[in-house]
Design a protein that fits this description.
Elements lengths: L4 E3 L2 E3 L2 H20 L5 H14 L5 H16 L27 H37 L8 H31 L8
Antiparallel strand pairs: 1-2
Length: 185
């Protein structure tokens, strides 16, 4: 997301949070239209239900909850003990040292862990392939890598033996034709 999205005066740079904020802004408008602010008990009931349902997770929703909370604290018929504090989602708590929210810091840590696991698995994979090549290169057994050479060497040896036998047979034939007795030896 290149350009921030402005919703009710808040600038959102995260697309997911901007979408959530839009939804919450519509929800706030709906609740405002349906809530009779002249009846503090009804406002307290709405406030409690919104907290129970955890409907708001962006600054838009929290701002509205704070408005309701401040209103209820000014009402004489409502006990401050009945007004629960607004729970803040971890994604909105900013760490002063890194500028990252707790949500993003935790997500980044998970991504780093997955990256380390992936690198370790790839390293093991590459090492096992290298070991297989070393074994194949140093082994005396015929493998797929040196199979063609072994077959060619074997055929060359057979061809040489056949040529020698042919020459011996021809020499014997020549002796027979010349009338030499082969049993005379």
């Amino acid at each position: 997301m290149e350009k921030p999205v402005i919703i009710d005066g808040y600038a959102f740079t995260d697309e997911h949070m901007a979408k959530q904020a839009r939804t919450e802004a519509e929800g706030v408008r709906y609740v405002r239209a349906k809530t009779d602010m002249s009846k503090p008990d009804q406002v307290l009931n709405v406030y409690q239900r919104l907290l129970d349902q955890k409907m708001f997770q962006t600054q838009i929703g929290y701002h509205y909850l704070k408005e309701l909370q401040d209103y209820l604290l000014t009402m004489p018929g409502i006990s401050s003990g009945d007004i629960r504090p607004i729970p803040v989602a971890p994604s909105l708590v900013v760490d002063d040292t890194s500028g990252l929210t707790a949500f993003w810091r935790k997500r980044l840590m998970r991504m780093e862990h997955k990256l380390r696991l992936s690198l370790a698995a790839n390293l093991i994979f590459v090492l096992s392939i290298l070991v297989m090549f070393v074994i194949a290169a140093t082994s005396g057994q015929t493998t797929i890598l040196n199979y063609e050479n072994k077959i060619q060497d074997r055929y060359a040896q057979w061809e040489q033996e056949l040529t020698e036998r042919e020459n011996a047979v021809r020499a014997r034939e020549q002796e027979l034709e010349n009338g030499q007795d082969i049993y005379a030896e």
